[in-house]
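User: structure tokens for this one?
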Amino acid sequence: MHLPFSKLDFGGVKNAIILLDIDGTLVPDGGDVPVKEIVEKCHELVEHNKVYLLSNKKNHDRNEAIAGLLHATYINTPRKKPSRKVLGSLDMQGKSLIVVGDKFLTDGILAKRIGARFIKAKRIVDVRDGYINKTMYALDDLIYQLFKSVVWRGRSS
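Assistant:
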């Protein structure tokens, strides 16, 4: 069972680059304001790591506002995850890389492509999520379970 982002243990993580998904991980899909526990968890991470936010939603003003609240850096890019190009010219040399997100098909595959550790957070679901979103969530979870058991053999979190 996956934990919500605010309950994940990052105690031993220092001097890493942490790539955080926004929608479904920090706020509900399309949401604007993370809850207090998420803000506090991000502030803890920023103390000892470089934290970047990524989103496939291109509401850059919203994404920048969330990044500011969390003291993180938003990567404003026209690219979408899981493309490696979302990272642009980000210098990742010599750093431990961690991708935290709720969706395997975007966040997990990005982690695999850049050689990062993937931590799957429990998805924040909103009652307003439509049928299509719920169907995509179920499909993503199914593919993650199949991929994890067949290919990764439990190497992801």
